[in-house]
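[Meeting: bench + compute handoff]

Bench side (C.D.) handed over the final construct sequence. Compute side (W.E.) agreed to return the predicted structure before the next meeting so the bench team could plan truncations. Sequence as handed over:
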Amino acid sequence: MKNLLVIVFFCLFISCSTENDNTSSENINSKSIVSQEHLISIENNTASKKYNDALVAYLNKNKYPDSVEELSSMIQFILDQYVASNKAESITYQQILRINNKPINELSTLLGNSLLGMEAKVQLETFIQNLINLQGKDFKEISSYLVFFEEEVLKNTVLTDHEKESILAVSTVSLYSFQNEAKRKDKDWETSVGNRKTPPFFEPGQRSIISVIAVIQKII
């Protein structure tokens, strides 16, 4: 009788464990499906895709920028992909310096000319400020923040669908930019002068933030 009770208890334990595992698996799968749908949505966003295509095309032929002049050239190349050649906008050395010195102020000025509502503008300013705070952090930590931020945007009931799409496009562009910077830093930050390393002109993540702010009007 005792052995029978042990067997019954063991079967019940296995059954409960399996049910819990199935529930957890369903939750994980559900989250994966939502994430995959979101991933497809943002990758199909024309503005963010155009940014990534331009960035990759530029970096295939040039080293990652390590001066204001080089960064200006890269951003100019990206901007040119958004407009007709006869209406190309130019990014100046002074603009890059202003964004570098006071990124949030420049962002506020650029957002002031957009049709986004106040909540959307606050979300973007907070987003960029948090990216600034994450400068120098590992790409994994930055990408985790991007996922968290996007989930919060999707749950926001104040933002319109258009505003959510615009904000998510900015987040996606940021992901592309930080991802490419992480890939290129080991290749471009070292100068072979007596096997000594030359300190980079920009801090890690700084170029990504500057480029996102510089092209943000084309994305939203």
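W.E. noted at the follow-up: The two ends are 72 Å apart (CA to CA). C.D. will use this when planning the next construct.
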